[in-house]
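Fill in residues.
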């Protein structure tokens, strides 16, 4: 069995004396692990860093085996991420959530492309914090827990949607939701309507967006995970993002 694909490195750990076991998110083959012979060498260690973009050749005698990878690096912007504490924390959350939440060997091409876009923006684009929040929204959708922000759950209205119901995951208008405002989650405008590229959202809107996505990640995704909790890297990323001036 063998295939060739492109992917994002999620994690790498030493295996034996000179090899590494890596986990990647690939475009056509989903989250996939394999052994890289010589992956622990001085030459390969700088290549096998989380967030790196790679060309991957995987082979194994049987499909269910872990198999082995041959890897070649693709151009990326990892240096910009390493120089930005907030971006580095976001990278840690992205790779941790992909590893913990995605089923193994199940393709998610749309999420792969969105992840690439986000990685290219980290530490470079001024609007990367809201791109991160939108990425979490996309992750929920890929896992079958997407939010419906198209119209009000109570009235069907499409204007002035300012809340989300924590029960249904549907938007609620200001008028319809007013009596239950304390029980609803705030819906920042940029999650609903988008934003001008390169324009950073207000801190209050970022905080509301991350609280919204975080609530559904905790309520819908965390119970399905091994330890029934989100990776700690997610909380560190939120803290770092909200510290950005």
């Amino acid at each position: 069995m063998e295939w060739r694909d492109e992917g994002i490195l999620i994690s790498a750990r030493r295996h034996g004396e000179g090899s590494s076991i890596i986990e990647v998110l690939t475009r056509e083959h989903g989250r996939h692990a394999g052994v890289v012979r010589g992956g622990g060498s001085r030459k390969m260690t700088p290549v096998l860093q989380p967030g790196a973009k790679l060309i991957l050749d995987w082979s194994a005698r049987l499909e269910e085996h872990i198999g082995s990878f041959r890897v070649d690096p693709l151009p990326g912007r990892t240096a910009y991420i390493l120089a930005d504490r907030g971006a580095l924390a976001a990278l840690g959350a992205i790779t941790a959530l992909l590893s913990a939440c995605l089923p193994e060997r199940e393709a998610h091409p749309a999420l792969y492309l969105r992840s690439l876009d986000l990685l290219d923006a980290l530490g470079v684009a001024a609007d990367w914090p809201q791109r991160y929040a939108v990425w979490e929204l996309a992750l929920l959708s890929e896992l079958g827990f997407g939010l419906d922000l198209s119209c009000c759950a109570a009235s069907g209205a499409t204007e002035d949607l300012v809340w989300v119901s924590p029960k249904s995951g549907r938007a609620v208008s200001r008028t319809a939701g007013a009596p239950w405002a304390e029980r609803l989650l705030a819906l920042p405008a940029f999650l609903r309507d988008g934003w001008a590229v390169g324009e950073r959202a207000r801190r209050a809107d970022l905080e509301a967006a991350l609280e919204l996505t975080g609530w559904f990640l905790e309520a819908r995704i965390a119970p399905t995970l091994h330890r029934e909790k989100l990776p700690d890297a997610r909380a560190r990323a939120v803290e770092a993002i909200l510290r950005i001036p």
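Strands lie at 2-15, 19-26, 30-36, 53-59, 68-73, 161-164, 171-173, 185-186.
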